[in-house]
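User: Hey, quick favor. My workstation is busy. Could you predict this chain's structure for me?
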Amino acid sequence: MSESTIPTTMRAISQDVLGGPEVLHEIELPVPVPGPSEILVRVRATALNPTDWKHRAISGLFLPAPPFVLGWDVSGEVVAVGYGVTLFKPGDEVFGMLPYPHRHGAAAEYVTGPARAFARKPATLDHVQSAAIPLAALTAYQTLVDTANLQAGQRVLVHAAAGGVGHFAVQIAKACGAHVIGTASAVNHDFLRGIGADEVLDYRTTDFADVVREIDVVLDPIDTPHAIRSLRTLRPGGIVVSIRPTGTEELFAAAEKLGVRAEAILVEADHAGMDALRELAEAGALRPAVAATFPLADAAKAHALGDTNRTVGKLVLTVD
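Assistant: No problem, here it is.
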């Protein structure tokens, strides 16, 4: 697509008030223009994450009051570049995460973002699969690789292992050569073994804190009390990394008392991280699980399914 054929307006999914999925509606907005160091991407698919339905419904999170267009995950085609961009040219297929949390807006036909928030789309994946990766897989990658410095032979405990972040964490940990233990309901155990989990625990029947020991790294997406209980599983020098933004001081104090480590992570846009995920995907070591796809116009239906918190993997909106 040449710049002369880029339309002036686009469809997007917005909301004027906080609430349930019914507050979402389609609107028409001007197609944004890329500024310096930015690219304009024709969105082919965008994935949902728990942060999407939480921001849709709850005040006091990271964003101001609506109206706003949500969405951070993008897979699509570069159609224009701003001054100074050398990584990409129009026609390149890319995927990435808009800088979280304030640079949202991926639930639309076009989006602009910093060029270095993107990487080339995995050649082995389509746009739906690629869109499922960025926010959730970057969270797992930045937890395990950047924060915990995971090494081959170490033992990793992944909670909610069949979820969006969890199923990527299992695969990234295995690619690092770790021994991976995942917690999930029994119905998802075969799925987890299929993506590389060495051990699986049914959280409904087994208390992980009573049976799991000698763990080097825990990824905990549940809540602060759960992360604090996870501290009991660590060996000396081990670390619990929480991806929840509340209760961190309580977690840090509990870790200090036990003589172990704890961190809380907020995912960041990351060209190098996205490129590492691309390499894992192209090597067959990272396979996104897509629970369901919906056209952009049916975003409310996708949000309603997300609200159940029962999906395995990711929900993706397709943008035709």
